[in-house]
Write a structure and sequence with these properties.
Elements: E1 4-8, H1 17-35, H2 41-53, H3 59-68, H4 75-87, E2 91-94, E3 99-102, E4 113-117, E5 123-128, H5 129-142, E6 151-155, H6 158-163
Helix pairs in contact: 1-2, 2-3, 2-4, 3-4
Length: 164
């Protein structure tokens, strides 16, 4: 399985969440500097909220958490921050759940697969180049230009299967 790079994999054992949060924020600041993007206070707070969850979180919940922290942003402000963070590749939008999750590797290939546990809501992000290559070749055969295809697979993780 040399062609598979696992980016986030809570399914495989213990995970130091505080370390990944800290690392994600450092990576986000570095990536914004590299790209010449401005990580405003609101954008940074939204990113911190998303990383603090470590589970998918919806836009409404992000807005609610901003308000609980004493901010009074209008809904468009939160949505613009989310759009910025997605376009800067600092977070992912999980389409099937209409939610967002942090991206630990903003400079990595974003043609990935998400394995979503329907029991505990953990998500493993995997970049399997064989899958990405197959999608690229299929698109080429159709004369179709795909742009960062993402696959979302719903099921039950090993930990939840074992505890059932």
């Amino acid at each position: 399985m040399a062609d598979t790079k696992q980016v986030i994999s809570p399914f495989l054992g213990e995970h130091d969440h505080s370390h990944c949060e800290e690392q994600a924020m450092e990576s986000a600041l570095a990536e914004c500097t590299k790209q010449g993007l401005k990580l405003t206070k609101v954008r940074q707070q939204v990113l911190e909220i998303i990383w603090a969850q470590h589970h998918p979180i919806g836009a409404y919940d992000v807005l609610q958490k901003l308000q609980q922290a004493g901010h009074k942003p209008a809904p468009p402000t939160a949505y613009r921050a989310l759009e910025f963070l997605v376009s800067a590749k600092l977070i992912h939008r999980i389409e099937s759940l209409n939610s967002y999750i942090g991206c630990p590797s903003p400079n990595a290939n974003h043609q990935c697969q998400f394995y979503i546990c329907t029991e505990c809501e953990d998500i493993a992000e995997v970049n399997n180049t064989a899958v990405s290559d197959a999608l690229r070749l299929s698109a080429q055969a159709l004369g179709f230009e795909s742009r960062e295809p993402v696959i979302e697979v719903h099921g039950v993780c090993k930990r939840c299967l074992e505890s059932a």
